[in-house]
Batch of 2 targets.
Target 1
Amino acid sequence: MRILIVGAGAIGGYFGGRLLQIGRDVTFLVRPKRADELARDGLVIKSPHGDLTIPHPPVVQADGLAPDYDLVLLSCKAFDLDDAIASFAAGVGPQTVVLPLLNGMKHLDVLDAAFGRARVLGGQCVIAATLDAQRHVVQLAPMNAITFGERDGGLSDHVGAIARTLGGSSFEVNPSAEIMQEMWEKWVFLASLAGSTSLMRAAVGDILAAPGGADFMLGVVDEISAIAAVAGHPPREAFLERARGALLAKGSALTASMFRDIQAGARIEADHVIGDLIARGDAAKRPVARLRVIYTHLKAYERQRG
Ligand SMILES: NC(=O)C1=CN([C@@H]2O[C@H](COP(=O)(O)OP(=O)(O)OC[C@H]3O[C@@H](n4cnc5c(N)ncnc54)[C@H](OP(=O)(O)O)[C@@H]3O)[C@@H](O)[C@H]2O)C=CC1
Ligand SMILES: CC(C)(CO)C(=O)C(=O)O
């Protein structure tokens, strides 16, 4: 199976590197600056599962693409989605499917419009990764998993074949018969975590130690859960127990990639991760007071960084 990974950033670089490590047929679609970095240093991964350097990872740039990939693993940020689609479209042939790993949900509509719904799987990843000052991929905690599936549900042969290709490395591969439910649940958790830690500029443990911190985070979970329920995906009790457990863990150093991006002064996915939830909440006439505070804060950050 020929895999095109769009972006060799934190998650694309990590999962792509791990797949190359076990001999899978992976090519990174990169822009010129990243191509230069990879040519100079190779793809460098620092990880609790073992460091890895791939001296000359296979890369291609948009003008060199041919439509002969079976799987596109999409790992750009949401604000780069349109540009990424324009870049990788030439790599999409009759047999290609697209598996996006972005946080949030709106990108599915954009990908459907570009390639047709039948080609776009549901997907998500759980990992804490970043690019350091040397542009090396740094995995910050051991968790690492990709979950994906057919958006209409069930486990197709195609999903099974992709799972076999992605499997065998140090990350978990979870083919899911209910990927939309899992994507909504991840959005509930991620947006609560990213929104709260970004707003408070603090990890979960510090927020918990502040007056009203726990109530704020659990209130965000409730607001987003109600929006998920309107979408037909009320979070399951077992998920909520895990999510609340993670947000109520005393002393926890847990943060989200959005918080790390703010610390680094980088662009963030405010509209994709939080703004879209507010739009959905407003359309369904659900209260989103905490999400509004978070969003205003994120948009002020965006304005400040210019
Ligand atoms: N980091 C994390 O821990 C997690 C992130 N996520 C989600 O995963 C997604 C990706 O995040 P992350 O990996 O952190 O982001 P990064 O910014 O680290 O990586 C994104 C990469 O996409 C590349 N890219 C963008 N547009 C193009 C294009 N047209 N052609 C080629 N490459 C392109 C960028 O390249 P360039 O260098 O040229 O800008 C960049 O390297 C986000 O939606 C995020 O919310 C989900 C779970 C955890
Ligand atoms: C849920 C979490 C925290 C880990 O995958 C995440 O998606 C992020 O940091 O963006």
Target 2
Amino acid sequence: MGAIGGDEMAQWDNADGGEVANGAAGKLEKILVSVRLRPLSDKEVARGDPSEWECISDTTVIARSAFPDRPTAPTAYSFDRVFRSDCDTKEVYEQGAKEVALSVVSGINSSIFAYGQTSSGKTYTMTGITECTVSDIYDYIGRHEERAFVLKFSAIEIYNEVVRDLLSSENTSLRLWDDAEKGTYVENLKEVILRDWNHLKELISVCEAQRRTGETYLNENSSRSHQILKLTIESSAREFLGKDKSTTLAASVNFVDLAGSERASQALSAGARLKEGCHINRSLLTLGTVIRKLSKVRNGHIPYRDSKLTRILQPSLGGNARTAIICTMSPARSYMEQSRNTLLFASCAKEVVTNAQVNVVMSDKALVKHLQRELARLESELRCPATYSSLESLVREKDNHIRKMEKEIKELKAQRDLAQSRLQDLLQVVGDNHVSKQELYLRCAPAM
Ligand SMILES: Nc1ncnc2c1ncn2[C@@H]1O[C@H](COP(=O)(O)OP(=O)(O)OP(=O)(O)O)[C@@H](O)[C@H]1O
């Protein structure tokens, strides 16, 4: 990876043809955070659970009454955007995710997260956001025939701290590795090159079918794992394809549908569901700690390594990526405390800063050319005696210069010692005989 090249830079604009991409310097920006209220569910309505939360503007959500256990806690919370329960997912996408997600076509990594308690609408929201993003990406590709695109797709779930490939029918646990260049990556993860949008739709359905879900008291179809769908887009200007100048922009967009936090007492969970709930809550707790620490200090210790989720998502949390988080909430009074926790998470998240860069990869051909040139230069240096002899004469010249300087230093030191001993003599004379200033001057003058 490196800075975007001059010729290619001129060819490349941002998703809407406006600003020029910002090169390798990166851009510091805060995570875009929005909150989405879902409508009361049938269950909530049936048990007479009233709607407690209200969006009083496009950016502020308030609790209508004080929190039962914390009467002095704030009841108003502001974010980049809040969405009422009657907003459709398209609107949430347009205002809460689109700009960040589509950075991927300009070579900038991006991540869209859904965070919230169980049954608050994360999967509902992320499914729609993924579809809208992919639709816009294919639309963009259709409008930019001057570039050749390659799209790759991979998908994992993290279930009870085990990473699994959602595109593989083998139920094996995948290991995480750290690489100086790639960062943390999943070993042996399948990455499929996409033929078209229908191909991607098929693969997403495979993931849906493979993902661990289970019925809980709070959600008939509750996701019991964290799911990360990753779409990688590589593109090169057709004009430079196969030429030395050709470089490739490469970036990924992650769609992260987290498992929901839950209270065992409210989820009425036991056995396997309870164990899952404990793992889910533990990894979400680490995510919360990471976000809280990042919101305060950037250079202290951040416990990314305490969970697989935060290890994998490290670049999206304060690294080389643009990130948007959509926090989902039930408006029901009975979940007031959980909703407040979601809003506290969202409040910390909006202080976190990421540093996204345009990712440029040299084409294989350009890389091979560069290496061939370097090899040829080294070979010629080895073969050519003239080059050797010129190096030898340079070393000889430097040696002579050093010897000359050492001699000068020696002479200067001798002069200094002589001057010091004369001074000693004179000071003695001054002390003994009160010599006149004139005489002192004459005696101090260096010998010519
Ligand atoms: N904005 C919305 N409008 C209408 N229905 C919604 C909305 N959000 C969620 N729902 C419905 O609420 C139910 C729970 O939603 P969903 O499964 O997306 O929650 P979740 O947060 O992913 O839950 P879990 O963490 O348990 O997997 C689903 O039946 C879904 O269709």
